[in-house]
Design brief:
The chain has three helices and 25 strands. By secondary structure, the chain is mainly beta. A five-stranded mixed β-sheet has the order 2-8-7-4-5, with no helix packed on it. The radius of gyration is 51 Å and the shape is rod-shaped.
Length: about 375
């Protein structure tokens, strides 16, 4: 942009002074040479007054204000070259008016860059002047959105973080992901992208997923942020069976089975025994529950003690149920059984003597009845 030539202003003041004297009746005497010829035509003066906004973004409506000054001619022609390529984008627009005239025009840029704007003002005798200015057009930044997981979601294992990205005026070059304050990692794809995250690399709890995209001008998008909760999932497994035979009524028997977390690495299993036979025996478990059992700890032994029922010659069966306290659908069943023997015979003394004599004479009967020759029945 430039300032107006002050010579024009001085000449204007002189002309106004002479006109004022003539109007007041003052006479002039010209001595010597004849009155000179009119001065040659002077070109107008072009001034770029303003460019708004500057800098601007691609696609913005940029407003240009140009001014032309020519005290000799009132009509002026305006031409604009908005990108400095030598081609007039606006050509010879006639603006009628006074010495000073203004011309307003809007233009939209489709590509970022620094452009030289040229204004040419021409009078009716084709005398012209130009002014130049610089306008800076910025690239519109790209955008990025995380579409999975959702805000506040609980995740575990290896998950696929997914999303979209776009750029209205240039090409995307990459999408990057980081977890919490970690390093940026490049996702697969651009407009539709995804990134596999192994949650076992962090601790359980709240974590922040951050995404950004970049275009081929090196501009980054604003980040998109999603907060999730990482919860490692345990998996309950129990191994063992409990079976006792020929248990004397009222006797105490012992056994065991194992509880193990076969779930994700770093997961913690909280388990408990919720069911055991209620219609027979007196049951004791040590322990009856446990917390924070990790896969790395391997099988954990649960000791079982049962007091047999006071019923003879009977078979008892049932199940022990163990559950994952945080997911009751994750449960295991241990089968149990216990049998008591039949009653021994109770004979009167007279009958007992008779039986002893018979068995003494026929020893084969003792073997068939499963008793000894002393008649311990």
């Amino acid at each position: 942009m430039k300032k107006l030539n002050s010579n024009y202003l001085k000449r204007q003041v002189v002309f106004l002074a002479i006109a004022s004297l003539l109007l007041s009746g003052v006479s002039f005497l010209v001595v010597g040479a004849p009155f000179p010829d009119p001065p040659p035509n002077q070109p107008p003066e072009a001034v770029i007054v303003s460019i708004t906004p500057n800098p601007a973004f691609v696609g913005d409506n940029v407003s240009f204000v140009g001014m032309g000054y020519d005290p000799e001619n009132c009509d002026k022609y305006f031409s604009w070259d908005f990108d400095g390529d030598g081609t007039w984008d606006v050509v010879d627009v006639l603006v009628e008016g006074f010495d000073w005239v203004y011309y307003y025009v809007n233009y939209t840029y489709s590509s970022p860059g620094t452009y030289t704007v040229v204004l040419m003002v021409k009078d009716i005798e084709d005398a012209s002047d130009t002014d130049t200015a610089v306008v800076v057009i910025l690239d519109l930044p790209p955008t990025v959105d995380i579409t999975y997981p959702n805000e506040g979601q609980t995740v575990h294992g290896t998950i696929t973080i997914a999303g979209t990205a776009s750029d209205p005026d240039s090409n995307l070059t990459l999408v990057e992901i980081k977890i919490d304050e970690g390093n940026w990692s490049i996702a697969a794809g651009t407009n539709n992208w995804e990134y596999n995250w192994d949650t076992h690399t962090v601790e359980e709890g709240r974590h922040t997923i951050i995404a950004r995209s970049q275009d081929d001008y090196g501009n980054y998008s604003d980040v998109d942020i999603v907060n999730v909760t990482v919860k490692f999932i345990p998996d309950l497994e129990c191994v063992g069976t409990l079976g006792w035979t020929s248990v004397k009524p009222g006797a105490t028997v012992n056994g065991s089975f194992t509880v193990q977390n076969v779930g994700e690495v770093n997961s913690k299993l909280n388990w408990e025994i919720t069911e055991c036979p209620q219609d027979w025996g007196t049951w004791t478990f040590y322990p009856s529950s446990g917390t924070d059992l990790t896969p790395g700890q391997g099988p954990f032994t649960v000791n079982v003690t049962v007091v047999a029922p006071n019923q003879q010659n009977h078979q008892f069966t049932g199940n022990i149920k163990i559950v994952n306290k945080e997911n009751t659908s994750d449960n295991e069943t241990i089968s149990v059984s216990l049998t008591t023997p039949r009653n021994r015979l109770s004979l009167s003394p007279i009958l007992l003597q008779i039986c002893k004599k018979i068995i003494g004479r026929f020893p084969i009967l003792a073997k068939l009845l499963g008793i000894n020759s002393s008649l311990s029945i």
